[in-house]
Amino acid sequence: MIEVLRIALPKDRLKAIPKDERALFLLLGHAANQINLLSKLVIFSTNKTPVGQPEQDLSGAQSQILARILIGMLAETWELIRTQFLSSPLGKEYSSKLDQVGQLALTNLKRNFGVSSLLSKLRNNHIFHHPSVNDMEAAYQVAANDTQWENDWNWFFSVSNYNSFFFISDVVFMHALLIAAGETDLIAAHAKIMKEVREVAENMIHFLMALTAAFWRKHFGGEMTGEKVAEIVDAPGVFDVWLPFFVEIPSDDSTP
Which residues pair with 5 in a beta bridge? Predict the structure, then answer.
């Protein structure tokens, strides 16, 4: 059973908070929501490995796309923290108010997003900004000479665009990430990237929760109390949900 608590934030107290501080915490809450959702989708998409082809390949490619979007969102959230929190008086004020877990998470995030941050590099050059022609050409050349992918230069089309996929585009793109990660093997590159993703996602959520607690103590005082508003008794287990690639489209549907 999952208990859902509702925590009311008095509008008059929120209104009294300086606009820069209020905007930052609203944005950080929005970022946390997106990170949590994308993290769940990545888990769902990897909960099952289909047996047959091409479903196995396309399901795997779908998981890679979701993971890349999560990487971009983690890096984007760090940019928000770096530019609007750490570089402002708010950062100095709140950093000392974080609990031990929050302070450790912030220290880890600073290390994760250091000068040679892989996630920031991917966000800037591959994920939230499409790679340059030269980067794609370099990836194409590497992919073309990768004998492990010799039989994967394919497109897959169906009546619905939802069930279609430009597979070779993703194969080349994955080789672009391989180059960015400084690896020569796609499995090693994926493991390196996802290890950092897991560390950053965990540290990010720990930091945001500690920061939220400090924000609450400053502006609302006392402990955070909530009213139980629901009990969810039929929620599936997080590792029981699978996000497939192929989906049935009703014949009378107007979708693409």
Answer: 228
